[in-house]
Amino acid sequence: FYAAADPGIFSTQSDQEALQPWRVGKIFRNGASGEGQPGEQCASTYQPDEQSDYVFGVWSGHTSERNGGQTWAAIELQAQREYISQGWATFPDAPTDPAELECDFFTLIDSRVPFTAGNTDPSAILEGAVLPAQGGLPLGAEFFLTVDDFYVQAGAPVTVSATARSADGGPVEGTVELALPGGWTASGGGTLTAASDGSQSATTFIVTPDPAAEPDTRFRLDASLMTGDGTGATSDVIEVVPPVRGTLQALPEIEQFREWAQELEVAQLDALIKPRLSIVTGGTREIPIVLQNFGVEPQSGTVALELPAGFEATEGVQEFTDLSPGGNATISFTVTNSDANLPTANAGGEEGDYDFAVVTTVGQQASTRTAALNVVPTTSVPGVGAAAQASPVASPVASPAASPIASAGMPAVDGQIGQGEYPGEVLDLSRVWEGDDPDSAQDASGTAQLVWAEDGLYVAVSVTDESLGTVLPAADAKRHWRTDSVEIAIDPLGTAANTSSTFKVGLFPTTAEGAPAAYRDADARQGPISETAPGMQVASTLSDPYSGYVLETFIPFDALPGPIDPERMTLNIFIYDSDTQDKTGQSRLGWSTWQGVQGDTYRWGAVILEGYPRLEDAATAETADPAIPLDATLSTNSPQSILQSTEDGVPIAGKPPVPDGDGVAIAGLAYQADQQQVGAILSAGSAGTIHMFLLGADGAVLGDLVAEVRAGESPQVAIPAPADPAGGTVLVSFETTEGAVQVLSVTMPE
Asked: Is 13:5 a contact under the CB 8 Å cutoff?
């Protein structure tokens, strides 16, 4: 938004590609936080949680003549259903009763153009940017406020600037007036003054908030522009902060977002993400509270936690002294989940959140900020074989009902759970984290059992399932969420910020060839386990008649991306349930469950490997750098991308097209049944790499070929073809050594 309007940032696009900077009028985030009523008045009845937010709603019940009079709700749903591989094809139809249809909401982040606060017209989101703003200013005119600092203290002056720019990019003659909250004052400003470069006009105010303004509250500053061409309105938001605020220390990835928001001066986005930390059920952890002094003087005061039932802090009220102006300090509380019977994961609290308050007091002024604890399940895993000597017999585990007894022998990976093979706790994997609730335990449910040996981890998963989903061929054993499968996720150090530092594997209980299959996905080393986890074993048995399956696996420790901290390791196990034959899943179950928990490594369950050697350098231990196969993202290797490019004419990967006369051509396409291949003759106008895909009449890829070509040559090539591809298609991508691209689509002769 900001950089695109600066001609100096992307100068090569102007110099080499004839593109010009574009001053975008408004920028929004998709969605909003709040509540409202469905129906045609959804935009006007919506109440945002943060009253200073500018939220614009567009009713999904409006109809589209171009799409046969369908509502936009129905059209949106059709688009969602196109994402078949994520299981979205099963979304139910949109309501036909207009009173049940809701709005699509958008929250304003920033605006350069005039707009009317409180405008709930369906086209309000476009006001000033696509449609002329109310008041008569010409389309393209700009009017906006900027504040020196988003965070201000009650009674402390702040500079507010009003800027106006004509539709043709010049100064504006006129005056500006501010409309402030009660008790606020302003001085200066009024008449616009042209900038020295003639690009715009501005005026500056000194705004003083009410000395009694409520801290931790956001206020709107409204402004009106009066010119000879018309009038315009705009608004901005400012937050009154206490002398000192205490907040839960953010996770590293959340702190990175906050720093980005501060750097771009969109600090209001900080409120989008509630700060959260996980705590092991029945466990104790440090809760760090970050104190920030917003004032210009050293401050002293107190900070305390108001915890929900079932949690206790060792410390009560803690003091801080002489916190420097603009400075930060961290105070830690030792918090225990004193009631280990509280529900864990998304079964606990409010959608998994146990909210608590951080109360910071300076003098007579208190600041309260909300945060949350997520309670994750835990288990102790006994050792077997030689490792059994390290594991105590009848070791205590999280569940008082479990009584693990270490087995002397190691499990046989045979898809069956033998007596005594897994003496540890049985984990319940039946909680839903996404998708439909199963009709019953027979529809979808499961358990898992684990033991460790000197060289790896054994995991047995028992799944109850009344209907087997699509059985995929081994070559397509990926994207496991499309059918019945299991996913195991391991963070060996328990410190991963994302899954690139973890081991994550999808396991299929069966394939068209009759054997199970597994591949690593979205982790430190993606791909088939034969390549990415040598030594990993997988076995399964399916009941007959079918009512579920058992998946058993051995995961070598050396396949994990780093050393194991046996006291902090985390793990999660998921069950994907599909009851259809269209490669879509309906339910996702698991052990430690939240919406999107696959990527939220901090909310995976805690695992203690009983007797495993302690990691001496745990504080400094790191995982290996992830091996991300970038070739998997090359559009030249994607038949879907090639086909799309042949249809819409947009060069693949955004690269320049091959100049006329420098591309490739195909002649003599013919199916050679005796050799089970399709032969062709190529001609090339320049050197490069060609990738040819043979698609059957149903769109399935039957074979492919990669070849290097040289300018002026006409080589003969052959694409493997296990069956007659009559009525099929040959798709071709060509990339020259200079990086230009070309695509072709040729229909096979009947």
From this structure: no
**Which tokens sit at 607?**
């695992």
Q: Dig out the tokens for 671 from the structure.
A: 């199916």
Tokens of 672: 């050679």
What is the rounded CA–CA span in Å between residue 485 and residue 495? 27
Residue type, 65: E
Tell me which fold the domain 244-376 belongs to.
Immunoglobulin-like (2.60.40)
The CATH architecture assigned to 27-60+102-240 reads Sandwich (2.60)
115, 225 Cβ separation under 8 angstroms:
no
Phi then psi for residue 718, to 5 deg, are -140, 130
Single-letter code of the amino acid located at 210: D
* Nearest Cα residue to 462 out of 357, 567, 552: 552
Please, what's the largest Cα pairwise distance for the chain?
Answer: 91
d(CA 154, CA 622): 46
**Which CATH topology does 634-747 take?**
Immunoglobulin-like (2.60.40)
CA 114, CA 163: separation in Å to the nearest integer?
A: 11
CB-side neighbour CA atoms (13 Å) of 744? 20
Least confident of 253-267, 292-306, 457-471: 253-267
Tokens coding 351:
């959608």
Residue recorded with tokens 């105070």: 331
Domains of the chain by residue range: 27-60+102-240, 244-376, 395-609, 634-747
**pLDDT mean over 532-546:** 98
Do the beta carbons of residue 504 and residue 536 sit within 8 Å?
no
Fold matches, 244-376 and 395-609: yes
Distance CA 337, CA 335 (A): 7
Predicted pLDDT of residue 342:
98
> Which of 331-340, 350-359, 380-389, 426-435 has the weakest average pLDDT?
380-389
Is residue 198 a contact partner of residue 214, using CB atoms and an 8 Å limit? Answer: no
Structure tokens at 31: 């969605």
Q: How far apart are CA 153 and CA 161, in angstroms?
A: 18
Q: Which structure tokens are listed for 435?
A: 């998708």
Residue 549 and residue 122: Cα distance in Å, rounded?
A: 52
First CA to last CA across the chain, in angstroms? 52
Dihedrals phi, psi of 561, to nearest 5 degrees: -80, 0
353, HSE (Cβ side, Cα atoms, 13 Å): 13
**CATH class of the domain whose range is 395-609:** mainly beta
Residue 741 has pLDDT above 60, yes or no: yes
Phi then psi for residue 379, to 5 deg, are -150, 155
Rounded distance, CA 209 to CA 143, Å?
23
